[in-house]
Design brief:
Elements lengths: L3 E3 L9 E9 L9 E2 L10 E5 L2 E14 L3 E8 L5 H11 L5 E13 L5 E14 L9 E4 L2 E2 L14 H29 L17 H13 L6 H7 L8 E3 L2 H14 L2 H4 L1 E4 L5 E8 L18 E7 L2 E10 H6 L4 H23 L16 E7 L8 H9 L4 H4 L3 E4 L1 H7 L11 E2 L9 E2 L2 E5 L13 E4 L4 E14 L8 E14 L5 E7 L1
Parallel strand pairs: 3-8, 4-8, 12-22, 16-24, 17-20
Antiparallel strand pairs: 1-7, 2-6, 2-9, 4-5, 5-6, 7-8, 9-10, 11-22, 13-14, 15-23, 17-21, 18-19, 19-20, 21-24, 22-23
Helix pairs in contact: 3-4, 5-8
Amino acid sequence: MNRLEIKATLAVDDAGEITGIAWPFGTPDRVGDVIEKGAFSAPGKLPMLFAHDQAQAVGIWESISETSEGLQVKGRLLVDDVARAREVRALVREGAVTGLSIGFQTKAATARRGGGRVISKLDLAEISIVAVPSHPGAQIHTIKGTSMEDEDTEAPAVEDRVTTLEADMAAIKETVGKVEKTATRIETKLARPVAANDNGLTAANDNGGERKAFVSYLRRGDHRMDPLEVKALTVANDTNGGYLAPEEFGNELIKLLVEYSPIRKYAKVVTISAPETKYPRRLTSTGATWVGETEDRTASAPSFEQLTFTPHELATFTDISNALLEDNAYNLEGELLADYAESFGVTEGAAFVSGTGTGQPKGLLAATGITEIKTGIAADFPATSPADVIIGMYHAIATSHAQNGVWLMNRNTLSTIRKWKDGNDRYLVLDPISAGAPSTLLGRPIVEAVDMDDIAANKHPIMFGDLSGYRIVDRIGLSTLRDPYTLAVKGQVRFHARKRVGADVTHPDRFVKLKVAA
């Protein structure tokens, strides 16, 4: 997943015209990244932000171009309209903030020996003014036409803002201290021997950026720590504080969801970007008839109906004390992820089997049009030969679907089926030869779905079919929202988790289910 990367710590805006180099070519920044000339596409106008905070846009960059020195920018602060811009102007004039910083999405990059990357292509998203830029050479050159290098004229006194300026200066000093500590850690890391993968961030290495940011987000909710964590924390946070779990966490969630909801592994799963999606389903086909050489031909045409898939919301929340978030020394984020995966997986797995379709996905057992084979009462299950029942189900659907089919049943039913034998006293269920492979029945895999019916009157304990005929539509993956306000008086933070998913049978002719008599 491409992520928005911020090459700085804290950024501040100024008023009036500002020119400077947002990124010098030819030298690495504090984390070892080098951006080549020609990497920037022409973005036109871009917002001027304070501290890379989208809620604090204070100006606009009107001219952005590549020169031999670097990315040359020129813009103006909206001092007549934005109070924050006027406050920052004095900081720039006093030299408290002199750097520039860029936020971008990497499109092409290679590892750089010794750490960092060589970035050859990117999409520029925003440019901010900063106290300490990620690249030492990214500096403001002029403000209101006055050189920052030889400015002798002092800014006019603004006594009513003295208190604000002093507070900002204290914050800047604190930030500088953090950056210096971070730089020391980076220098130590860069001094390590270079591994075969150039010390790149991989799953086998430290893979630190997004995971560290997510952990810090869970513990403190703060996305202004140091340059490395900041640029990871902007993966996806919106104006109301929402946060999308990093890609690695999202992948782990899907893997865990499959464990609790095995139907996901076999069904057709698609991701949509609309409130609902429609799919056509053919009801009847064209019909060919034999005719003589000059006889009239008979017209025929297929008929269709339309299926509508609507994602439904699945949600929960967790309350955690501030003390636990601050002091825990174990894998808290992993525990939280596993709990969410289990609760979401169990709930959606039940809906995929028996969901009503009202406010939740429609399950396999609730879908219409699926062939049903009846057997004896539960006390005498099955009434006929066990092998006959299973063979009848296997041959109730088309060959092509049967060859891709799986058996769905819960563990209680499987316990009964395991005792069934054919006429030669051989068990029908065969255990896997290799580790990790499923047990088979008539050569097809058995999928244990805990939510399938037990053997009982008017229940459907066994289903057979090609699960590609069952479609799952994901609208929103796992997203979490950190709410530090609702339970603040109790010293707790509330984490909201949600996703949106829908499902239904698209091809009922690919399934057959067994019903126990009343």
